[in-house]
Amino acid sequence: MQQLSKRELRILLYLLENSEPVTTQKLADEEAVSVRTVKYALDNIRLWLKERRLQLGSKRSQGIWIEVNGSERMKLKSELMAVDRLELFPDQGLRLDRLIIQLSLSKSATTAQELADRLKVSKDTIMNDFVVLEEKLARREMELSRQTGKGFSITGTEREIRLLIEEVLQQGFTDYDIYRIMELLLQGEECDRYEIYSASQTLLQEVFNQAIVSLRELLAVENLDELNYSELLNMLIRVSVAATRIQSENTIGGYQLLQTDQINREELAYQLMSVISAKYHLPLFEDEYRYIYSDTFDSGPQQDVMTLTKEIISQVSENQNYPYSQDPVLLTNLYAHLSLRFTRKQKYVNEYNPFKDEIKANYPSLFAAIEMAVKKEMIDESLLVNDSFIAYIALHFLVSFEKETDSRRVRAVYVCSTGLGVTSLIKQKISEELSNLEVAAFASVLNAQEIVKKKNPDLIISIFPIEGVDRPFVKVHPLPTKEDLRKIQVEIKRILGQDNQKTPNRLGLARGPINHDSAESCSKDLILKGYTVYERLLVLLKDHLIIEYREGFLLHVLLLVHRITFEQQYILEGGHEDQRIMQQKNLVEQIEALFAENNLAINKSEIHALFAYLREE
């Protein structure tokens, strides 16, 4: 079987995500490598596809694509993430994850040679990995202990060790892993297994699959509308980690048995814990139940969510010197997010967040400001304040920033010749190429100073070198060239405080159709985004959607995406939509998250309108 490197896997997934041809230069830019490197990767990808009787299509000046239909495309992505990822060449990051799992599951110290044999690498490689592992553990106040003649082990509090295991598992999951696990929980067969790449062929792997089987049986009689996929995932992980650690004689607290008459035995967490404990002949400890059920219990003072929301926005606005406080949509959406977060029965420190690493890396200042504000204002919820929690909040601020920078325009006076035909041509060219520039007036070199004084523009663009102006100035050719337009755009971004070097937009948070080169590309992008949202909604709502309404639902979603993009959402009077929305909080939260992933902030009125296409529960 053809093996893939991580880079080749990323390129293959990128091609699967894009049905349109992609150039090798675009792929090289995405990977920050040369075109030659991409071509070498494509050679291996072709061989990998050939084994599956598929091939890459290519056409000069257009690019390359994978010749596969829609259903096969989804199947291939699922296969790639769930199975063929095991064919990757392990890199150091993966080996570190496997080392953490191996050392955490061992009852006693393990030698470097034993670890090398398990991971199928040399002892020298393991010793080099230990250097990096020690640094990683030190940041968490943990240690890699060496015992002469016995080997190595991880030392630290039981809670920190378990959180480290959880982090390894959570970071290893992709969107396709989540989809696969949820599919196994809801539709899987008894023989189906999920492979945890970092815990392959370990007791943790075995317990996790047993937990999937047990939870699937329990869910058969549960009301799924009251459940959240993130809670189910955390429950699976924590039950598996607890059962595995107890078997290696490590408990998270005391040995007080759980008093079942003091808890709700109908709780899913308790039922799953009971089944797995019985399966592996383990006692039911009270502290283990608390670990599995939640990181917090509602014994302390209740948080005023609206006050918290306002304080976070206010403090971040002041820290970032940006008027987030003036965005009512940010207040509404962040309040809704936090309200749903705090009303969940299960609250976990580690929560799956596919945006976490990129947000933290690309927006460090915003991330730090949010973290500071949240830690200051949260009441008795400090356990929940982790990178994943902060990153979800940051998404709301980024949507607000992107929306605001899209709508702001730089006003310019354009100094050129006075011919009507010339000014019309320039105005047309600028409107096509620079959507965030408004030409307030055209002036000649004779009346430039007067026009500037009268119009008070943000920017002056001129074919003549004008001296003595007290505002940004860009000199261009009589008919602006591509390079001229690039210089103008750089100056626009500087004026708007939107320098790409400071705030790179690598998250896929698209700036929306207003920045596209033409009405044609704008329409195309809107249609594609609308259909993408529609397909995701079909998966999310497959058990609720009235099948006869499917075609009308497609049209509704396309128009909905259009309304959100151009800020024309439905606003229903009164509160008559609240009852159904409140009854299905988890579904509402999932819909909001889906739209947020596509840089769309949907309001409750629009969600209520979507419910018209769903069966009454």
Notes on the structure:
- There is one protein chain.
- The protein is of the alpha/beta class and 617 residues long.
- The chain folds into 6 domains: 6-87, Orthogonal Bundle (Arc Repressor Mutant, subunit A), CATH 1.10.10.10; 92-156, Orthogonal Bundle (Arc Repressor Mutant, subunit A), CATH 1.10.10.10; 164-293, no CATH class; 305-406; 409-495, Rossmann fold, CATH 3.40.50.2300; 513-613.
- It has 26 helices and 8 strands.
- It has helices at 6-17, 24-31, 35-50, 70-82, 92-105, 112-119, 123-138, 158-172, 175-187, 203-219, 229-247, 268-279, 286-293, 305-320, 328-343, 356-362, 364-377, 387-407, 420-433, 448-455, 482-495, 519-540, 550-565, 578-583, 585-597, 604-610; strands at residues 56-59, 63-66, 143-147, 151-155, 410-415, 437-443, 459-462, 473-475.
- A 4-stranded parallel sheet has the order 6-5-7-8, sandwiched between helices.
- Strand 1 and strand 2 (63-66) form a beta hairpin.
- Helix 11 runs antiparallel to helix 13 (286-293).
- The longest helix has 22 residues, at 519-540.
- The relative contact order is 0.05.
- This is HTH domain-containing protein.
- Pfam families: HTH_11 (PF08279), PRD (PF00874).
Can you lay out the helices and strands and say which pair or pack?
Blueprint: H1 6-17, H2 24-31, H3 35-50, E1 56-59, E2 63-66, H4 70-82, H5 92-105, H6 112-119, H7 123-138, E3 143-147, E4 151-155, H8 158-172, H9 175-187, H10 203-219, H11 229-247, H12 268-279, H13 286-293, H14 305-320, H15 328-343, H16 356-362, H17 364-377, H18 387-407, E5 410-415, H19 420-433, E6 437-443, H20 448-455, E7 459-462, E8 473-475, H21 482-495, H22 519-540, H23 550-565, H24 578-583, H25 585-597, H26 604-610
Parallel strand pairs: 5-6, 5-7, 7-8
Antiparallel strand pairs: 1-2, 3-4
Helix pairs in contact: 1-3, 2-3, 4-9, 5-7, 5-8, 6-7, 8-11, 9-10, 10-11, 10-12, 11-12, 11-13, 14-15, 14-17, 15-18, 16-18, 17-18, 22-23, 22-25
